[in-house]
Amino acid sequence: MLELLFLLLPVAMGYGWFMGRNSVKQNDHSAQQALSIKYSTGLNYLLSNQQDKAIDYLLEALKVEDDSVEAHFAMANLFRRRGELDRALKVHEHLVRQKHLPSKDKQQAVYELGKDFFSAGLYDRAETMFEKLLKSKHYGLKSLDYLMRIYQSTKDWTKGISHKKAIIKTKDKKLLHNLANFYCELATKALEEDNFIEVIELLELALTYDANSCRANWLLAQIYENHQQYNEACKCYQDIYHQDKEFFPDVIDKMHHCYSQLDTEDEYFKFIKKVYEETGGASALIKYLSHIEKKFGKEKSKEFILLALKKRPTIKGFKHFIKMQMLNSPEQDNTENLDMIKELIAAYLNLKPRYSCRTCGFNSSKHYWACPSCHDWEQLKPVRGLEGE
Ligand SMILES: [Zn+2]
User: Fold this and answer.
1) 3-state SS record for 313-346
2) Burial level of 193, CB count in 10 A (0-12/13-18/19+)?
3) Residue 25 scores a pLDDT above 60
4) Quick one: which of 310, 266, 257 has its CA closest to 288?
5) Residue 363 backbone dihedrals phi, psi, to 5 degrees
6) What distance in angstroms lies between residue 331's CA and the mean position of ligand 1's atoms?
7) Quick check: helix, strand or coil at residue 349?
8) Distance of alpha carbon 82 from the chain centroid
């Protein structure tokens, strides 16, 4: 990469010098001379490895013509990719200062400058840049996306929501999904204060902007449960299943609690049977087994799990099978052995992350609504496969 930089700078410099020479009128020798001095000083600094001083001189000497704008952007992007943000900033700021640039190039320069500030964590300055571009045809949507990322980092949910109209206008699914999560953040605060009406209003808005926000239904279920409105809570849990089958294992116990409060467990197990048949998930299997055992006895339950594990083996399911064997074993020695196996499996599963981000693959034992790695909302879901669901 370093070689590329050293290649790019002299090439750009030579090109700029050529363009500059042609554009300087033949009789304007003094201007030409001044440019040559800046080029040679810049080159000297570059050769003596004083890159910052070299950039200053070369930028001043390099005439930003239509044909060389791309070279400037390429050079700045190269700096940014190398993590040399101060240098990228210098080039982009230089481009922004060029009064004669066409509007599209100028907007690109402002956008790139915003990205530099964002990468450097200078969010207020990045915000100023992106706000300038909100009406831009080419950069409006991208800038809005960056603004929402800034407000997510600064936890300024209300400011994000203030861009609601612009977001709705874009009809962009990702932005609407982000907006819904901003409402969920406010609802979480209102839930902590047990402000029933506010929570419901905020979450209804969240679901208006993103009907697939299972987080909104998860929060709704909490507030209904807190207020003993179990019917409504059960409906929210059912909606979560239809919204996101992969997230559902996380609410399976809470849902059971609500149905048992209503004394309608049969209905619950009817639903869980459907979940197991459709997903084959380990949590649904374990839940459903308790129902089979209660209704048809231990033997039937054992037959069911053996068949299920043959069809779709999971360590979680196997752990449950060992637990069932222990409860059914009359011999003390056998129970002790099985207990040891069960403990070993439990220790193994504890080492494994329960959640994985469907966007970037980040793994975690704790659940986060926004992925700590890629910052996408609602993408951390229970792990699938042999070591998961
Ligand atoms: Zn992620």
Assistant:
1) CCHHHHHHHHHHHHHHCCCHHHHHHHHHHHHHHH
2) exposed
3) no
4) 266
5) -110, 145
6) 48
7) helix
8) 23
Portion of the chain with pLDDT greater than 70, in percent:
83
CA nearest neighbour of 218 among 254, 179, 178, 177? 254
Name 150's Cβ contacts closer than 8 Å, sequence gap at least 6.
Answer: 118, 123, 126, 127, 130, 156
- How much distance in Å is there from the Cα of 2 to the middle of ligand 1? 31
Does the global pTM surpass 0.85?
no
| Sign of the CA dihedral with 209 first, then 155, 115, and 106 last | positive
Give dist(CA 95, CA 105) in Å, integer.
Answer: 9
Point out the least confidently predicted range of 64-68, 156-160, 263-267. 64-68
Mean pLDDT of 42-69: 66
Mean pLDDT, residues 185-213 taken together: 97
Q: Please return the burial class of 247, using the count of CB atoms within 10 Å of its CB with bins 0-12, 13-18 and 19+.
A: buried
Average pLDDT score over residue span 213-232: 97
User: Which residues are close to ligand 1, an ion, with C-beta < 5 A?
Assistant: 357, 359-360, 362, 371, 373-374
Asked whether the beta carbons of 328 and 302 are under 8 A apart, the reply is: yes
How many degrees, rounded to 5, is the angle at CA 385 between CA 379 and CA 388?
70
User: How crowded is the C-beta side of 145, counted as CA atoms within 13 Å?
Assistant: 14
How many residues can be counted in the chain? 389
Average pLDDT over residues 239-251: 96
Quick: pLDDT tens for 324-375.
Answer: 888 877 676 677 778 888 888 888 888 889 999 999 999 999 999 999 999 9
Taking the centre of ligand 1 as the mean of its atom positions, its distance from the CA of residue 373, in whole angstroms, is: 5
Percent above pLDDT 90 for the chain: 63
